[in-house]
Fold this protein.
Amino acid sequence: MLADLHMHSTVSDGWQDPDEVAHLAADHGIRVMALTDHDSFYGVLRARAAAHRRGLGYVTGVEVSTYPPLQVRHILGHGVDREHPQLLAVLRRNQHVLRTQTRAWIEVLREKGFAPVLGLDAFEHKPMIMPGAVLKVLLQHRLMSEAEAWASVRQAVDFMPAEVYAPMPSPQEAVDAIHAAGGLAVHAHPGVVPDQDLMKEVLPLVDGLEVYTRRHKPEQIPVYEELARQYGLIATVGSDYHGFNGERYAMPKQMIDQRYLERLGARIEWPALEATA
Ligand SMILES: [Zn+2]
Ligand SMILES: [Zn+2]
């Protein structure tokens, strides 16, 4: 069965709305999907409603950032209770860090006169903001090239004091919160973590390893297949789709390991029969 257990929407730094993401998955023959926006659940209801209209199984998911930020040890939570207080508390800590970064960047853009043009002041009222969402607005308005936009965000956030990032959870805290919320924890895109020893510290904690992702080069796949075997982890599948700058959806080529679907069990929400008619 084709599944995509790692996708992003405009709720975090994706370029398409949650329901569009669900339709895209359905259009490509995906049977089970999880929207896994960074540190937030605000897209779940819209994505799930669209997924169910198209007959897909839906897994409530999230991608949790952990400390230190540059190591991108991102932990996917699959099949979680999105109202669980321990998990929500962890996500709020990350949302606070992302908001601090975004505000700093908006200040830099304000000095250049961009904020009123782009409606960046309205970002303050959104429940969840991150620099990637501002980047989207800049590129969509063609006010900067991609390289200029990245340089600008680096100017704003690269020299922030280290304590800005202190609220971020450790991988242990993130995994504990996902488990407390009844979910399974997966180390996303392990191949992009700069310090591979730090990545391996996470492996005894999690249930799965995202081996099959377009963020891995073909020669990386066997490396992480072997690590999954060593640590007794199920290899999972996820596109990490963002739709960035018009990027097309590259659906997963690998079928999902049936054992992972079995472990998710009732945590996969299927549409009621009448809803698919
Ligand atoms: Zn990630
Ligand atoms: Zn992601």
In short: The pocket of zinc ion (ligand 1) is lined by residues 63, 72, 74, 188-189 (CB under 6 Å). The longest helix spans residues 85-111. The mean pLDDT is 95.
